[in-house]
Write a structure and sequence with these properties.
The chain is an alpha+beta fold. The chain is about 45% helix and about 15% strand.
């Protein structure tokens, strides 16, 4: 499986409301990967920005989860576990919009 490598970022459209999930292409161009539409939210409690943040964090979340699996699958040093913990916390923060 292949996907567009990160980082992915959320960008509010110029007319406001809708949010694009974008990445940088190999020639430096902006690639729109997905759009999160404000008017689609069926529940007033849904935060469109939060939805965009978690989508944009997908590559880092995947990498952090893969690293965590590697560390816990084998005997890893404390230093390696600390590195993976930082990666996981970073990915979670991205997903939470921090």
């Amino acid at each position: 499986m292949s996907y567009t490598s990160g980082p992915w970022n959320s960008v509010v459209s110029t007319d406001g409301g809708d949010i694009g999930i974008v990445a940088e292409g190999v020639r430096g161009e902006r690639i729109v990967l997905a759009e999160v539409f404000e008017h689609v939210a069926s529940n007033e409690d849904v935060d469109v920005d939060a939805n965009a943040d978690i989508i944009a964090a997908a590559p880092q979340l995947l990498e952090a989860c893969q690293a965590a699996l590697d560390v816990w699958s084998f005997q890893a040093s404390d230093r390696e576990r600390q590195r993976v913990e930082r990666e996981l916390r970073y990915a979670i923060d991205l997903a939470m919009g921090k």
